[in-house]
Amino acid sequence: MSGTNDMADVYAAIEKTSQLLGVPCSRDRVWPILAAYEDVLPQAVIAFRVATDARHVGELDCRMTVPKDVDPYARALASGLTAETDHPVGKLLSEIPGHCPVDCYGIDFGIVSGFQKVWAFFPSDDLQELSRLAGIPSMPRSLPEGVSFFSKHGLEKVSLIGIDYEDQTANVYFGALPADCREPEAILSMHREIGLPEPSEQMLKLGREAFGIYFTLRWESPKIERISFAVITPDPMALPVRFAPRIEQFVRNLPYGATDPKLVYVAMKSTGEEYHKLQTYYRWRPRVLDLMQLPGSDSAQEPG
Fold first, then answer.
1. What is the rounded CA–CA span in Å between residue 52 and residue 263?
2. 244-290 pLDDT per residue, tens
3. What are the tens digits of pLDDT across the range 97-121?
4. What are the φ and ψ backbone dihedral angles of 58, each rounded to 5 degrees?
């Protein structure tokens, strides 16, 4: 399949999904992003994601994988999708390969807001030690300063790093979770130790099923800003969560990905606001299981 034909197919899927959510989709906004990565689209894993918090109402996020020989941030800069910056967020991705092996990359973009994030995935059989990532010069200082906190809870193996250029934050994802860190007592302790409000019973229930935990860090603050838990399920509507009608419509009416796993993230902001992100796959690849340490892969831990 040619890249141009694939662009047209992906754009059509984005447009159809946006209609389900009532989100305006502009070809002038979306097409240049697809064009910037046209050559990698045919092999990419592609997913769509919605979030339940007020900030994300009216937005549909798209994410896709990029081979490790393509620098996704450099390409976004060259294509005019994002502006150059002197902020450390602009340096972090280029420093990662010098410290850690990278399996592949990924990008996120909003169909309204445009280019947002880049991801660096580490090999599933070589998750990276926390101490190695803490030594990357442009990493937010809350990571090296929080090493004792993470280690206390058995969070030593990092599966991927996310870099949000829009918000100027970084996400650190931990895989190979010890069972104890998913217990309600441990989840409560983590929130208390970093000064976040206590999670709801709903969040504690979902946390017990998590295959991964990630933390959001900001360069301007030594504090950990957010804790998120990732859960995989074939049927998000069976979870102990009440989704808004637009989210239910997104889950129940997509014509693709009906038999593929769905990802549900439950997160808490520093304000105490809890919200969910729900991700479904337009184009699935079995290696996603390994990349994200999902249940079902040889290297993934089984949820408790």
1. 14
2. 787 888 877 776 666 677 888 888 777 788 888 888 888 876 555 55
3. 999 999 999 999 999 999 999 999 9
4. 85, 15
Q: Do 13 and 21 touch, CB atoms closer than 8 A?
A: no
- Quote the CA–CA distance of 85 and 301 in Å, as a whole number: 38
- Answer yes or no: is pLDDT of 161 > 50: yes
Pair type for strands 104-110 and 212-218: unpaired
Query: What gap in Å lies between CA 160 and CA 251, rounded to an integer?
Result: 26
Which pLDDT band, with edges at 50, 70 and 90, does 301 fall under?
Answer: very low
d(CA 216, CA 169): 7
User: Nearest-CA neighbor of 39 among 10, 66, 68, 71?
Assistant: 66
Task: Determine the angle formed by the axes of helices 184-193 and 201-208, rounding to 10 degrees.
Answer: 120
* Three-state SS sequence of 212-261: EEEEEEECCCCCEEEEEEEEEECCHHHCCCCCCHHHHHHHHHCCCCCCCC
C-alpha to C-alpha distance for 249 and 151, rounded to whole angstroms: 40
The amino acid present at 260, given as its one-letter code, is D
Q: What is the CA radius of gyration of the chain?
A: 18
Among the listed residues 178, 126, 155, the one whose alpha carbon sits nearest the alpha carbon of residue 224: 155
